Design the sequence.
């Protein structure tokens, strides 16, 4: 049954891609995307970004698992950065391939001496096998209707990451990159590396020019490791310049901060502003006026259980976010179907049950004409209980999406224009529907009793008269 479902997705994806423009901001509401002529938000629980650079990772099996769970995004590191085994206390880390199983964009030479086994790299020559693998990954994702965030660079958090980079002079035959780990992404300090990085960006853009399911993120977590704003602006300019002569333009993303931060001086080429670990959803509220997609493309460090990450996804999207990615450690080499039983010492979670919970969240939001909705917590007239989590997304007078976790307001008072409305309650953790009811609003406040004094619920309200 699962194989048949994926086969249907492949057929639909292949058909939809013909003549399709790349992922874009939705003209009706640029807080969301337009993908294959349909308004879209991106929602996933994906692997730790090593699907292409790790030769032991079966990415076809992985993409099948995402598609079967109704998820439509994956985040991919380019291969300019790689991690040592045990980094960040991650078991079976896909970004930490075994010795000689790392595929870099730059070709291996005949000169031995790479820090993690095998020969050194030549920064003046590309590895055809890497780009074949990259194009195949993006193509297979496209067939399944999955968007790929192509993350170009990542800071060298510590010397142990820099020690493994092909850009480190110790690992290439070009004697380029004799700099400190925190100088790699600083144009005033990185010397000849800047030209190597810009050539790499142009190569990636050229290789993926015809992909409709790609956007480019400048750098993962640039607020660590000495990455300068000047360098980020330059990379955004290089992406835009590389696409000037191409028939299509792809969106560019910037990773802004962990948690939240008000964006004061946005890079003009950027259309997606991504945050990490952004709960509560202050990141959306502080930057909604920019009129661009606000995303959360990584979360974790709240234990291995589903509860917090499920709440985080609901709160972020119902606050007006357009993108959410949970970092899912159940996807590993050998467990590309997302069944790896990771230890409780992991810095995050993810599993098949959690992905089904996200599937319901996606279906719930797609049950609305969501591009016409905006954040609307001010319409909730009930006193909000202490420590309760409540979000409201609405097109006032027509449709309302609400999420509750913890103590619920009793009764629930919602400001609504006069009319008749259908209230449909769901258990947010399971998607199980609860009895619905039809109520009339007198034109001021509509009163409804929640299913219980506390719990975790989603509420869909639509005008029926």
Sequence:
């Amino acid at each position: 049954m699962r194989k048949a479902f994926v086969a249907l997705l492949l057929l639909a994806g292949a058909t939809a891609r013909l003549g399709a423009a790349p992922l874009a901001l939705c003209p009706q509401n640029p807080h969301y995307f337009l993908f294959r002529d349909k308004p879209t938000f991106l929602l996933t629980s994906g692997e730790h970004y090593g699907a292409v650079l790790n030769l032991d990772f079966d990415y076809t099996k992985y993409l099948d698992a995402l598609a079967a769970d109704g998820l439509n995004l994956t985040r991919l590191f380019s291969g300019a950065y790689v991690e040592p085994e045990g980094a960040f206390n991650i078991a079976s880390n896909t970004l930490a391939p075994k010795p000689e199983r790392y595929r870099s964009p730059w070709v291996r030479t005949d000169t031995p001496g790479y820090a993690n086994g095998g020969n050194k790299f030549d920064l003046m020559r590309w590895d055809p096998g890497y780009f074949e693998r990259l194009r195949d990954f993006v193509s297979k994702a496209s067939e399944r209707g999955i968007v790929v965030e192509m993350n170009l660079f990542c800071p060298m958090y510590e010397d142990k990451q820099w020690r493994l980079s092909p850009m480190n002079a110790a690992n290439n035959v070009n004697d380029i990159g004799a700099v400190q780990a925190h100088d790699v992404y600083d144009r005033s300090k990185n010397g000849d590396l800047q030209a190597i990085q810009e050539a790499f960006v142009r190569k990636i853009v050229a290789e993926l020019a015809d992909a409709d399911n790609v956007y480019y993120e400048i750098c993962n977590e640039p607020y660590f490791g000495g990455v300068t704003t000047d360098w980020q602006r330059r990379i955004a300019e290089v992406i835009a310049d590389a696409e000037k002569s191409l028939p299509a333009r792809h969106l560019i993303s910037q990773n802004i901060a962990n948690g939240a931060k008000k964006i004061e001086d946005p890079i003009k080429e950027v259309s997606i502003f991504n945050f990490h670990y952004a709960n509560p959803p202050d990141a959306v509220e502080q930057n909604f006026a920019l009129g661009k997609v606000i995303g959360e493309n990584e979360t974790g460090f709240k234990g291995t259980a589903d509860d917090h990450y499920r709440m985080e996804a609901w709160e972020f999207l119902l606050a007006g976010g357009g993108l959410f990615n949970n970092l899912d450690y159940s996807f590993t080499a050998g467990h590309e179907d997302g069944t790896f039983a990771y230890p409780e010492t992991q810095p995050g979670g993810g599993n098949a049950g959690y992905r089904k919970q996200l599937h319901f969240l996606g279906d719930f939001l797609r049950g609305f004409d969501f591009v016409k909705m905006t954040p609307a917590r001010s319409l909730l007239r009930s006193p909000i209980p202490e420590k309760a989590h409540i979000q409201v997304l609405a097109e006032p007078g027509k449709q309302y999406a609400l999420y509750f976790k913890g103590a619920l307001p009793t009764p629930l008072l919602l400001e609504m224009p006069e009319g008749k409305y259908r209230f449909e309650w769901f258990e947010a953790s399971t998607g199980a529907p609860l009895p619905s009811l039809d109520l009339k609003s007198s034109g001021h406040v509509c009163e409804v009793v929640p299913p219980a004094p506390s719990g975790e619920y989603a509420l869909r309200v639509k005008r029926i008269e």
In short: Residues 2-17 form the longest helix (16 residues). The CA atoms of residues 116 and 423 lie 58 Å apart.
